[in-house]
Backbone:
């Protein structure tokens, strides 16, 4: 393997890389937001992105399913491959990419429609119309999201009538219904109650056998609990692009980080 | 006069400064002036209502409620004042206006809210708003000169009638419906839009599967208010409708609405005829009150759901 600049340390990786990012720079118009990102996200693992607010974690996450395309004036340099395929390559349909790379947001955002219709939304986009088939997909997705027991008798109720934590699991079920390879989670637990946080974390442990998970979190205990590998992001000075400082096994990052800045952040000296 | 003096004394004895008499009177006066404004606005509505009722209620005696509400002929020379043809005309013209205008307006709103670039938006939005400021007589004149000949060509008549009136009204209600629909789309939580795109929905799928259903009640509201505008519009309709109080006989045939009939008849109506015109005004009042009530009920439903 070629030696990598930046932070990706190949010796930390085992198994196939799902996402491979090389020399990524990202711009919002004139603002240079990210620079020199290199990272390999391993298949069927949980990777945590940590770092102080405004350090580009979410921006980077949104490069991975091209959500940033929706913001006018954004630009990207470098390459991101998913299973070896360049996701910014010519002819790649971002809509199709987003079906393979699902996303969970900080604020639970179910659609203002019934629980059933929320989960059936994705499959219906794919053109699945048969009731029995949809029923089965919906039930399976809700079971995988550990929500089935709570909602199986109230499927016609509006998704917004559920509690915050249930709404977040509904959003996870909605994404799982389209069988994504990757699940991007942008601070999925910062707007829900502690019991629900526990449920979502358990869920991540169950899901990672079949889905690659990348989670942005401000909660370092959470990163330590749920992730196999951790990436530390930092914007050193205001107005400069953020960088990926260190990337490695979670246990290593939290016990013996190589970079002093990582150590400072983890021990709470800044951020 | 002795009381304020006492207050001043009290003020000087304590450390706190008391409100001066001038401030007190100014505050009290302002409060009352604003109250008066509100009362006058309400009083105007009340006064018009009472006046219209007072002049119009006699329709129950002459021509009689059944003849008025159920009559199929409006003819002042024969002394027949049945409002069904006028109601029929109002419904025909309003329905036509909604069928043509609502899709146009909702499409405009979707374009402004979801598709247009900021530059495009800064051109289209003021243009739509300007449409709301065009005097209705200008719309009527435009309809008379531009639309009527086209309709005459299409229907083989003079071009005065339902279709011409509907087309003009459709354009007139676009700003109302478009602006309110855009507001409704704008108040859909942004997270929902993002979620839809993140699920792999295209822009079109996001619009018709997520955003339009989410803004449904707001859009219905907008359409009802547009409908109110169409029902109430008089000048432009009078100029192009042909003003024959008869039942709908085809898109090109002349027709009259409740409002247009009042305008046409009011200059010479006397006695029962005049009473009947006030009766028409009462009907209009009831319709617009009904529409307002409907909008309020819907928005209550909306807040309950959210």
Residues:
């Amino acid at each position: 393997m070629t030696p990598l600049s930046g932070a990706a340390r190949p010796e930390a990786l085992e198994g196939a890389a799902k996402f491979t990012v090389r020399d990524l720079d990202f711009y919002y118009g004139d603002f240079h937001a990210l620079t020199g990102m290199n990272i390999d996200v391993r298949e069927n693992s949980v990777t945590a992105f940590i770092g102080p607010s405004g350090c580009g974690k979410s921006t980077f996450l949104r490069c991975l399913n091209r959500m940033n395309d929706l913001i006018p004036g954004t630009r990207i340099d470098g390459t991101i491959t998913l299973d070896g395929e360049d996701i910014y390559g010519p002819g790649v349909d971002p809509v199709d990419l987003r079906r393979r790379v699902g996303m969970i947001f900080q604020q639970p955002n179910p659609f203002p429609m019934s629980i059933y219709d929320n989960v059936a939304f994705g499959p219906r986009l794919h053109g699945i119309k048969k009731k029995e088939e949809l029923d089965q997909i919906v039930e399976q997705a809700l079971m995988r999201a550990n929500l089935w027991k709570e909602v199986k008798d109230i499927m016609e109720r509006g998704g917004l009538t559920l509690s915050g934590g249930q709404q977040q699991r509904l959003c996870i079920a909605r994404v799982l219904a389209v069988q994504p390879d990757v699940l991007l989670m942008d601070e999925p637990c910062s707007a829900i109650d502690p019991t629900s946080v526990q449920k979502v974390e358990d869920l991540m442990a169950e899901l990672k056998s079949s889905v690659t998970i990348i989670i942005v979190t401000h909660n370092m205990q959470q990163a330590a609990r749920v992730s196999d590998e951790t990436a530390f992001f930092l914007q050193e000075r205001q107005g400069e692009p953020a960088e990926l400082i260190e990337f490695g096994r979670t246990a290593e990052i939290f016990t013996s980080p190589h970079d002093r800045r990582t150590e400072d952040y983890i021990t709470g000296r800044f951020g | 006069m002795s009381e304020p003096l006492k207050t001043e004394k009290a003020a000087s004895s304590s450390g706190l400064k008391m409100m001066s008499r001038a401030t007190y009177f100014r505050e009290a006066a302002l409060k009352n002036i604003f109250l008066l404004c509100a009362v006058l606005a309400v009083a105007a509505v009340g006064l018009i209502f009472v006046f219209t009722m007072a002049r119009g209620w006699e329709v129950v005696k002459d021509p009689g409620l059944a003849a008025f509400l159920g009559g199929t002929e409006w003819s002042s020379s024969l002394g027949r004042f049945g409002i069904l043809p006028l109601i029929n005309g109002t419904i025909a013209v309003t329905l036509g206006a909604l069928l043509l205008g609502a899709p146009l307006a909702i499409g405009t709103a979707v374009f402004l809210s979801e598709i247009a670039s900021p530059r495009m938006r800064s051109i289209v939005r003021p243009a739509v708003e300007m449409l709301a400021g065009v005097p209705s007589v200008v719309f009527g004149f435009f309809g008379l000169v531009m639309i009527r000949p086209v309709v005459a060509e299409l229907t083989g008549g003079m071009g005065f009638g339902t279709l011409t009136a509907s087309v003009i009204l459709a354009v007139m209600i676009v700003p109302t419906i478009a602006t309110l629909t855009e507001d409704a789309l704008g108040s859909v939580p942004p997270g929902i839009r993002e979620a839809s795109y993140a699920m792999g929905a295209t822009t079109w799928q996001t619009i018709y599967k997520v955003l339009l259903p989410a803004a449904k009640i707001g859009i219905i509201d907008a359409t009802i208010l547009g409908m109110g505008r169409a029902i109430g519009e008089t000048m432009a309709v009078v100029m192009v409708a042909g003003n024959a109080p008869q039942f709908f006989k085809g898109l090109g045939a002349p027709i009259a609405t409740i409002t247009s009939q009042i305008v046409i008849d009011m200059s010479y109506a006397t006695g029962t005829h005049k009473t009947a015109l006030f009766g028409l005004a009462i009907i209009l009042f009831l319709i617009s009150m009904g529409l307002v009530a409907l909008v309020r009920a819907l928005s209550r439903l909306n807040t309950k759901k959210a």
Chain B has 13 helices and two strands. Residues 1-7 of chain B have pLDDT under 50 and may be disordered.
